[in-house]
Specification:
single chain, alpha/beta, 8 helices, 7 strands, about 15% strand, binds NADP nicotinamide-adenine-dinucleotide phosphate
């Protein structure tokens, strides 16, 4: 049955940024699809844990601005569930400042969370896939700014453009091990990440007018693509970043 290919029954997924927004939605979708989920967050994912229950969700507290926490994420996941099948690199930050005065701190903080830790956590999980001889699924949350320049967000654009490129590099090296690494580029979604943008009446109106679907996206809008790329339904999809954007990129 085709729908069986979308099942995540028996799978163990790590989802970073599990306390809110798109990450919380992905955790919920994976549990609904049958997976056990390890959510990684720097603050406790209390709401997500209450929503999903202790039998389905385990929270690792870790600040992903440093790679030092990677062994803790891997070790706690293995101690709890014994294996890893899926990684979603969702945690991300954005800093807005005019590029003419953009600070080194705003550059480094974004690049560390959105790119450096993503790469080395991905490497550690791929090493575990090789140990398990299981293959696995890795999903990087990219952005419209993997394709476009944006305004006042140079480090975010650099990180999200890079993550789309690195997704292709790793796919070229790891597809032969049965590891599928792909990206999802969300359009403009109503989460904390875009709160400042949505509160800016002019920018918000400009953005909305340009979205063919005529509305901001929601975490639920991302769930289908996230389940697809984590499931065997996508076994021959490699190195590609799928836009879930209400048509934004087509304009
Ligand atoms: P969000 O609500 O701000 O969620 C971001 C998540 O990342 C939060 O759980 C946040 O934790 C976590 N995080 C940030 N820094 C962290 C760190 N150092 N260590 C651990 N966790 C950290 O925004 P979102 O919209 O759901 O964003 C999720 C992903 O989608 C991000 O990669 C974002 O760039 C991407 N994205 C979003 C949009 C959009 O329109 N919303 C569009 C394109 C791409 P805290 O709550 O503790 O900060």
């Amino acid at each position: 049955m085709i729908l069986d290919q979308f099942s995540l029954a028996g799978k163990v997924a790590i989802v970073t940024g599990s306390n809110t927004g798109l990450g919380q939605g992905i955790c919920r979708a994976y549990v609904e699809a049958g997976a056990k989920v390890v959510g990684v967050s720097r603050r406790p994912s209390t709401e997500t844990a209450e929503m999903l229950g202790d039998e389905n969700f385990y929270n690792v507290i870790a600040d992903l601005s440093s790679c030092d926490v990677i062994p803790k994420v891997i070790n706690e996941t293995l101690a709890k569930y014994g294996r890893i099948d899926i990684l979603v690199n969702n945690a991300g930050i954005i800093k807005r400042q005019d590029s003419i005065e953009f600070s080194e701190e705003n550059w480094d903080s974004v690049m560390n969370v959105n790119l450096k830790t993503v790469f080395f956590l991905t490497q550690a999980v791929a090493q575990q896939f090789l140990k398990q001889q299981s293959g696995g699924k890795i999903i990087n949350i990219a952005s419209m700014l993997s394709y476009q320049g944006g305004i006042r967000v140079p480090s975010y654009t650099a990180s999200k453009s890079a993550i789309k490129g690195v997704t292709m590099t790793l796919s070229n090296e790891w597809a032969k091990y049965g590891i599928n690494i792909n990206g999802i580029a969300p359009g403009y979604m109503a989460t904390n990440n875009t709160q400042a943008l949505r509160q800016d009446e002019d920018r918000s109106a400009d953005i909305l007018a340009r979205i063919p679907a005529g509305r901001w996206g929601t975490p639920a809008d991302l769930e289908g693509a996230a389940v697809f790329l984590a499931s065997s339904a996508s076994d021959y999809v490699n190195g590609f970043t799928i836009a879930v954007d209400g048509g934004w990129l087509g304009r």
